[in-house]
Amino acid sequence: MSVEQIEAVIERPKKIEHGHLAWPLFPLAKILRRPPPALAAQFAQLIQDRIAAGDPNCQKLGLAQAVAVGGFLNLTIRDEAFQDRLIQAVRASLRHDPQASTLGNSDVGKGRRLVIDYSSPNVAKPMHVGHLRATVIGQAIRNLAQSQGYEVIGLNHLGDWGVQFGKLAWAYRQWGHEYDFEGKAFPSLFAIYVRFHEEAEKRPELEALGSAEFKKLEDGDPELQAIWKRFVQISLAEYQKVWDLLGVQHDLVRGESFYNDRLQAVESMLEQKKLLVLSDGAYVVPLGDEMPPCLIRKSDGASLYATRDLASAIYRREELKADLNLYVVGFEQSLHFKQVFKVLQLCGYDWVEGCHHVAFGLYRFKEGVKMSTRKGQVIFLEEVLRQAIERTREIIQTKNPNLTEEERARVAEEVGVGAVIFNDLLFDRSKNVEFDWDRILSFEGDSGPYVQYMHVRCASLIKKFEAAGLRPNLEQVSVLSSPEERELIRQLMSFDEVLESSFAGFRPNVLAQYLLEVCAAFSRFYHEHRILDEAEPIRGSRMALVECTRVILARGLRLLSIRPPQVM
After folding, report:
1. Which of 206, 287, 391, 506 is deepest in the core (most CB within 10 A)?
2. DSSP label at 474?
3. Per residue in 177-198, is it b (16+ CB within 10 Å) or e — as a string?
């Protein structure tokens, strides 16, 4: 086996008493035709003999013990060596900016470009709570990708085209004068959207009128083009308020309309490759028995989502030079993306292997709320965030009444918004998430405020330490060897591995769960040991461990787009 193959299978035992590293010897035992336990015992004895003999390589690695456990070879690193590696890594990460650590950064993606499509709401419709998942999961994956060395382009694939704009344009020209489009532009836009659909239920002929307007828009009618552009501008201004609250960034806006002049080239290519088939007046690409045909153009000549996503994928690869192309979109679009990727494969594009649908589940509400944008029955995302901030402000007022009004407002936003984000990212994205205010805003247990509170506890200890004219010393640290200290150090040393794993599976929940584990380990350390009133040099060493914990909690929270507060 190569060194790379060995590194790929090495595990981290769940309990520190089992060592720091575990090498499962089953693959090697199969090659050597030896029983795994016997091979593990042989290797353990060999390494123990070298440790006893003072072997330089063992000393360099800091090896303290090798033990055979069944078919595993468990290795324990000396406390001082393990602790020193943590301190050095934290110290190095703060070299350029003491406030913003680069801990956990790697060059796994160096020289590669990742394009990630996330949030991407539909123009004229308010972002509701259902948009939260696509937004925060996408931003977290973007952050994780950057930590792994990828050059990242965050793409806003805005839903800014389709027959709904014909309907909106018709409604605007009929009823627009009845609404305050100067003072309350977006609420007015949404109101005429809802009104059109309410009217269309009573007067079905409105649907045809809307379709006719969209046909004029597609044909370039200048008045309709101006109305459509105004709708887009109004919507983007509204969405930006939500993105700012959530700390979301996009590098490019490439709405569906961007691909209008690229659709014919896609259809021509499909035709040249003899993939396009006429079926009941529509053009489709048959996909065999695996899945239904991919509809490319409807019988009335209108293009579809698949046509645009094919054009978009080709654009992202050929013009944006994407090595990885991610679509953060709900599970309900799984078949759509399977069809799109299959068509790309049939076209001979081998780069389709780098295209991934990053799917996620739905929100569930305790009250059983169902959302319908057309009927105006929505839970607006901005309202959810504002409510989280207000509820948190009330909690903060009770817990820390000495904060100034300015501090309370800042902390309420940091903690309230962070709580909503963390609640989403804590769970495997493939699962549905229950929206429960009591659990989301809890300052105890598996919640964002709990992680933020632990960061504040670390920051508070450091502040008190500095008030005595001292600073956590990351240069000269005594060995800490109690069970609680060793476990906390072990957890902190897992950080880079957690980031790599979290990105590799496009699963921010791996990082969120890890932050809770760090908090639990820190809590045990904090409650079992004196820190500020301990004698030197132990006090300084424990403060160094507090600083390492603070740095990693802050870094982890920021990677989830959650701000680490200094007070709560």
Report:
1. 506
2. S
3. eebebeeebbebbbbbbbbbbe
Q: Is the dihedral of CA 328, 329, 333, 336 positive or negative?
A: negative
Domain 381-559 CATH assignment equals 1.10.730.10: yes
Closest CA to 154 of 124, 129, 134, 176: 134
Listing DSSP states for 59-86 in one string gives HHHTEEEEEEETTEEEEEE-HHHHHHHH
Taking alpha carbons only, the member of 172, 164, 160 closest to residue 223 is: 172
Q: What are phi and psi of 298, to 5 degrees?
A: -70, 165
Which of 5-19, 123-137, 454-468, 553-567 shows the lowest per-residue confidence on average (mean pLDDT)? 5-19
DSSP notation for 48-65: HHHHHTT-HHHHHHTEEE
**Predicted confidence (pLDDT) at residue 308 exceeds the cutoff of 50:** yes
Domain boundaries, the chain: 3-77, 119-252+314-365, 381-559
Q: Are strands 21-24 and 63-69 parallel, antiparallel or unpaired?
A: unpaired
Q: Angle, to 10 degrees, between the axis of helix 131-147 and the axis of helix 495-504? A: 130
Report pTM: 0.90
Report the DSSP beta bridge partners of residue 73: 23, 68
Cis peptide before 537 (omega within 30 of 0): yes
Q: What gap in Å lies between CA 432 and CA 537, rounded to an integer?
A: 49
| Mean pLDDT across 233-248 | 96
Banded model confidence at residue 367, pLDDT cuts 50, 70, 90 = low
Give buried/exposed letters for 394-426 (b at 16+ CB in 10 A, else e).
Answer: ebbeeeeeebeeebbebbbbbbbbbbbbbbbbb
- On whether the CB atoms of residues 134 and 330 are closer than 8 A, the answer is yes
Cα 106 to chain centroid, rounded? 17
Strand partners, 153: 115
Q: What is the largest CA-CA distance in the chain?
A: 91
Q: Which of 3.40.50.2300, 2.130.10.10, 3.40.190.10, 3.40.50.620 would CATH assign to domain 119-252+314-365?
A: 3.40.50.620
Element spanning 165, H or E: helix 163-175
pLDDT above 80 (res 290): yes
DSSP H helical ranges for 94-148:
131-147
d(CA 200, CA 169): 14
**Most confident of the following: 345-359, 372-386, 396-410:** 345-359
Least confident span in 74-83, 247-256, 485-494: 74-83
- Helix (H), strand (E) counts: the chain: 21, 13
Residues 39-63 pLDDT 10s: 999 999 999 999 998 888 888 888 8
Dihedral angle over CA of 390, 391, 393, 399, nearest 10: 170
* Secondary-structure class of domain 3-77 per CATH: alpha beta
Q: How far apart are CA 237 and CA 307, in angstroms?
A: 28
